[in-house]
Amino acid sequence: MILVNGARKSHIDITDRGFQYGDGLFETLEVKAGHPVFLKRHLERLNSGCQRLSIPFPGFEILSVETIQLCANQSLAVLKIIITRGSGGRGYRQPDDIQATRVLSLHPYPDYPESFREQGIVSRFCTSRLGLNPGLAGIKHLNRLEQIMARAEWNDPDIQEGLMLDVNGHVIEGTMTNLFYIKDNCLYTSILSHSGVSGILRSLVMKIAEDCAIPVIEHLFDKYELLTANEVFVCNSIIGIWPVRQIENTRFCVGQITRNLQLQLRGLIKTELNNEH
Amino acid sequence: MILVNGARKSHIDITDRGFQYGDGLFETLEVKAGHPVFLKRHLERLNSGCQRLSIPFPGFEILSVETIQLCANQSLAVLKIIITRGSGGRGYRQPDDIQATRVLSLHPYPDYPESFREQGIVSRFCTSRLGLNPGLAGIKHLNRLEQIMARAEWNDPDIQEGLMLDVNGHVIEGTMTNLFYIKDNCLYTSILSHSGVSGILRSLVMKIAEDCAIPVIEHLFDKYELLTANEVFVCNSIIGIWPVRQIENTRFCVGQITRNLQLQLRGLIKTELNNEH
Description:
- The structure is a homodimer of 277-residue chains.
- Chain A is an alpha+beta fold.
- In chain A, 30% of the residues lie in helices and 29% in strands.
- Chain A has eight helices and 16 strands.
- The longest helix of chain A has 21 residues, at 256-276.
- The first copy, chain A, starts with a strand and ends with a helix.
- The relative contact order of chain A is 0.14.
- The interface between A and B is large, with 56 and 56 residues.
């Protein structure tokens, strides 16, 4: 089911700048027992992304109401929220009066086997690189050709995620996930000031780690640094935390810190769902 | 008027990857006396862009037929051709069976005053930077947030174009144009291996210059190099060649080489239109 500006529809105007230029941004949420998980955090990120792109935010109230309406009776699903700069404006110049378009759509929850979460996944390095752009870095915007080109590099169903480097050779994230590694009991992840998507799960994982007194360090690191880690995992709002058991020829154990973060995250989701009931 | 896969329509499926991810590319052509100018060159670029993005090219025959059908009776207009990877595919992964979407749309020709072509335009440097990505550089793809952010930097109607630098400080192009400068009777333009759009007019200007025995040099240059040029101009398929008479506080004369290139270009368009008749 799809809602476009509150109405049931399956299409969008050709003139919409989301279609013309990828001029917009999006969120992907897990829907569990009728509830969009971490909705408030997702809407807050959408709001801040809209501010950075100067797209008028449709408002927490209307997005919450429509989201809850769409998610009712969904036991397990994926909700996608797209906001675009709407129609109009000749060329790249935005119209003086922007009427943002909002699209909410439900999708089946992907049938990932439980083993991905328990035993971990296999990953590879992509040759497609992430460009550097401080103005757009962090935002979950609709310009996703870099990820599409990276994801097109492999068809092997035994590889679940591709890791992307920036043009300077720093490992930044997965094609659809944020990346963490653990070394000497510290949790490391990339700085996202020049590329990458600042994920909701990423910020939650960092918060959980800090609450558990695990030092969290954001920095720039290369392949070698990653491959000599004690534990590695990827995360996003749909998969939660997946341990990485192998990157190309290097194997990793699913360690205690990753297990603990998975446990804490599950608790957090449970608490949120209970509070909403 | 808009044709979507050959049928008159004004909308596109929400599931289209052009809307979901900016997963596609486009061309913008001038339509003159019923004829799409430099159609063959535009379709060739579209074909090579499709190849680079692994999108199946819809074919020269069908695109030519639909273009000519749409342009008939248009004395002066703009034609936009969009090709996307079509619908489907979960997330960034492309579907195994890609059915490209083609959208052809007509737009009014912008009412630029003749003075832009004759006396030149005023330009500024944008603070928004172009990211570096060799895999996408040169392609006129649908990921255009960088240009939109740059174009949003000014509202002053006396400024006609913004010049964009890459993250390393090299001047690359205008928000909607390619950029050239002349120094000591040589023609210079930026290398587009890491960012920028490889324009049809850009390649034509370079060809005309070479035919006139003007040395053409593609290289990376900074603001200072540009501001100490003898002549500066920008170009694209809609505006042709616009001399730049001012960049911020630096003034330029509309020089003989720019005038000659404009003249040659006009001749080339005339010849093409005559040959088609």
